[in-house]
What does this fold into?
Amino acid sequence: MTSKLVGIPAAPGLAKGLASKWDPQGPEIPRFQPGDLEIEKDRLAKARRTAAVQLHVLAEGVASRTAEGEAALFEAQAMFLDDPALLARAEAAIAKGQNAEWAWHEASEFFAGQLAGLPDKTLSARSVDVRDMSRRVIRVLMGEESPYLIDTPSIIIARDLAPSETAGFDASRVIAICTAEGGPTSHTAILARGLGIPAVVGLGDAILEIEAETLLLVDGANGEVILDPDAGAGEAFDSRMSLERLQRSQQVAAAGQPALTKDGHRIEVVANVGNAEDAHAAVSSGAEGIGLLRTEFLYLQREEPPTEDDQYEAYQTIFEIMDRRPVVIRTMDIGCDKALPYLDLGKEENPFLGWRAIRISLSRPDLFQPQLRAILRAAPGHDIRIMFPMIATLEEIRAAKAAVMEAREALGREGQPVAAHLQLGMMVEIPSAALMADRFAREVDFFSIGTNDLTQYALAAERTNKRVAHLNDAIHPAVLRLIRDVISAAHAAGRWVGVCGELGGDADAVPLLLGLGVDELSVAPPMIPQVKAIIRTWSFADAAKLAAQALDQDTASAVRGLVRDGKGRK
Amino acid sequence: MKQIDVRITNDVGLHARPAGEFVKQSARFKSDIRIRNATRPTTGWADAKSILSVLALGVERGHTIDIMADGPDEEEALQALQNLIESNFVGTD
It folds into this structure.
């Protein structure tokens, strides 16, 4: 029977396909009474050997591609696989009459559970690696190859997707994502937009109750999922999909051209990038540069901080892909919601209000200087701009600028070539920075508004807390007013302003940001053709009128309603 | 049977890499070697040759551990493990 679920739009696009329940645990683990216990012991021994070879190959493959930190992950899993106490426990279970799969699962869970219960975050995070290792062995036992068993392109149904679960995601086989939890800035939403896959989040438990292989129609832009459509609904959807495909191909064809409004106002459309692969995607989707290069990938999942040379090489690779296009690189933005073994982040009641990002960098020159030196060394020959995250006070931006000066002078003394002039800018994501934008404009060359955090701080709604997800809509008039103030302060001082939060890729928000006078929009690479296409359908004068009306609305939903009516009016 | 108390002074406690070194070193000896987190004694004694058991002790920086060895090379084993910890897990390979 046809029914419809409505959730939160997370990534635009239409998709039609069969539901596949995403279960990071993998398939159900078989449990049976084996006839011959010796055979089970043998099966386990063989599967462990195969898994060891797989881990070795993975470690080598990763080591040759990326930072060695990730290789260490697979090496750690190989050690777990080899653990004598784990093996003894599994063999004891077999001796009691269990089959190999179940025995291994139970033995691994025993240790994973112990680790998960530890107060130290770095240690408790190891339980994920134990479970990954365990699943690998069980898959070998079951004769399965693919980590997540998506064999035909399907629509993934999950409670929520965590970064550790999507590391092995085969994007070519996922045509849409529907989750019960999560908000517009959850990992699932950001991942889906990055991959260009339609997604609806926050659908509630109802989505988990559907049968696997149910036919679904997913409308990512409107946050709607239709279950078991009748023939009429299916055909109507098909024609919308072919229209969308046609539009998309036209948008992609025009993506290499600049984004000009009907009255000739230009907005730079650039990409949010987290690694070299994203940078390639950015160039091929028509990005005019990088508006946000996240450097966190260098810091995560490793035992020691990245060296200056590690960073230099990684930055140089990305800068070379971008050639002469402008690149805004953001210094490390990490807090105690991430576990870094080499950085004693401790435990905090409110990690988003705590010791993170520039606050760490300024108090740890041993981390900050190598990063700044690596950027300055890799910059010559490219258009590189450095941006500091989480700036709340003028003292911080002055200290950050002084740190750049220090790095530059030290490199000069060592005779290293350094770029002559670099633009220095800051994220505006803390209300204090937005309110003091006129003062900050005297200190920096540009602002980039991080709407995800700005919304979280302005509305006091934690991004990762699903119970307050409904408050976390960056299109709220309060956030738009802050953006307006930042832009007018910046323009009065002759500075440019970008937006690098998820709002920049929100189709409803694009005309508003345009109308508010944003100079640059930075979005996930797959969104670039669409964002450029939306800009081209507006005149700057009309967008400015719409933005003025939006600032005068009472609620976020009233703003969305206004924009959608405005679309009809054109 | 011999037992020693050692304070973990390295920067991160018995996390992945140091714990791995500790387990590798333990595995070189014939003796049965056990380790306990004396700061959090409820975790009990663990097999020092099992990485998962050692990690599960949750040894953090500043914690004290007890190590016990029983077997033909118990004295050498304890000496080697003490050296490893006191050197902050450097230069073991």
